Amino acid sequence: MADATGSVNAAQAEFWNSLAARGWADQHQRMDRVLVPPLEALMTAAAPQPGERVLDIGCGSGTTVLELAARVGPSGHVIGADVAEPSVAQAQRRIAAADLRQAEVIVADPSTHAFPAASFDLVCSRLGVMFFAEPTATFRNIRRAIKPTGRAAFVVFRAASENLWPNGPTGAVRHLLPPLPAPDPEEPGPFSWADPARVRRILEGAGFRDVSLTPVDWSPRLAPPGGAAEAADFMIVFGPLSRIVPTLSAETEASVRATLETYFRGHDGPDGITLSAANWIVQARA
């Protein structure tokens, strides 16, 4: 894995390059449709301007890179960085198809990659900063790449207890799964930036200032009305269950799918199958 296999984030690099995570590259359109509201909230907070240079952390299959590139225009430049080679390859294809010469994506671990010093006006991320084993050291490295007048904006999850998506479906099938370790709030994971005090400790420890967290609540639409099977498949392709389901027997996997479908029928309504979600918009200055 390019500049990641030997790093403290090697376990994350291994997962994001495994078959269990291929849905993020091969089926990115499904997740992109769900994540429109937090992407819009991120763009409002980040406010990328024409001509700016932007670094996108955990860029995945390129949706945020494409949006940022459209906003900074031909006089700006956007670099996306991710450890997932299949997602980066997908992003490169999308950038080429859009003929956006002001955008590029690289396979890189932001914890250690040697980004050009003091070169970015903005660093941002859509749900991509919660997975670093040593977050303060990572953001110290990232801060070196930001201009003294630069800024940062991220979307992260609030506490698991506030997020029916993605936490609720996993809880509904927990009795069918092997014992799951209790998450350590200091360990990498989707809810590791839930505690505002920890977020400030990470960013201020890395040299950022004026750190703020603004709550954003929204309702992900996982499937249209009557789409319990589609919603169940979505949760197996994306999120915590993607790590677990491939290890199950065919019989247990069938039980998980059936239980998820029952769960989602309880959340079906005129607008489709929706769950509640709770994010922070994190902002800071270099």
Task: Tell me about this structure.
This protein is α/β, with parallel strands linked by helices. It has a domain at 10-161 and 184-222 and 278-285: Vaccinia Virus protein VP39 (Rossmann fold). It contains twelve helices and ten strands. It has helices at 10-16, 23-26, 28-34, 36-46, 63-72, 85-98, 135-144, 164-172, 196-205, 228-237, 241-244, 250-265, and strands at residues 53-57, 77-82, 103-107, 120-126, 146-157, 209-218, 221-223, 268-269, 272-274, 277-285. Strands 3-2-1-4-5-10-6 form a seven-stranded mixed sheet, sandwiched between helices. Strands 7-9-8 form a three-stranded antiparallel sheet. Helix 10 (228-237) packs across helix 12 (250-265). The two termini are 30 Å apart. Residues 1-5 have low confidence and may be disordered.
Query: Which spans have pLDDT < 50 for at least 5 consecutive residues?
Result: 1-5
Order of helices and strands: HHHHEHEHEEHEHHEEHHHEEE
Which secondary-structure class do the elements indicate? alpha/beta
Total helix count? Answer: 12
* Assigned CATH architecture of the domain at 10-161 and 184-222 and 278-285: 3-Layer(aba) Sandwich
CATH superfamily of the domain at 10-161 and 184-222 and 278-285: Vaccinia Virus protein VP39
User: How many strand elements?
Assistant: 10
CATH C-level category of the domain at 10-161 and 184-222 and 278-285: Alpha Beta
Shape: globular
What is the share of helical residues? 25-40%
Query: How far is the N terminus from the C terminus?
Result: 30 Å
- CATH topology call of the domain at 10-161 and 184-222 and 278-285: Rossmann fold
Instruction: Tell me the radius of gyration.
Output: 19 Å
Whole-number mean pLDDT: 94
